[in-house]
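Q: Structure tokens for this one, please.
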Amino acid sequence: MAVEELPPQTEPTIRVIAMPADTNSNGDIFGGWLVSQMDLAGGTLASRTSRGRIVTVKIDSMVFLNPVHVGDEVSIYTRLLGVGRTSMKIDIAAWSRTRECDSSVKVTEGQFTYVAIDKNRKPRAVNPS
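A: Here is the predicted structure, written as tokens:
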């Protein structure tokens, strides 16, 4: 018997409503829109962690598990997996909830890598001493 997964019991990093403008030519929510929302959430955690500007350098993995529909509330949760000298690896999961119910379903998950940069856009230490 499968165990039903529940969203994290923390506040999401960001929450957004999927709108008609976010659809592809078939009327489904465009996967690229969802990836961009995940990148915004991951970038928020990376900026907080590094106390400054960051850039996305890699999406280490990405899995689309369930569709998102117009009007769904999408909550994106982030978790810091590791910090290197200049980089941070962040686990990001998106959960979707329709307006008519209280339960959520995981729609995507992935791991993103960010690098802290200075004012000249060069890598800098995440935790300067």
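A few notes: The chain is about 15% helix and 40% strand. Strands lie at 14-17, 54-64, 73-83, 87-97, 105-116.
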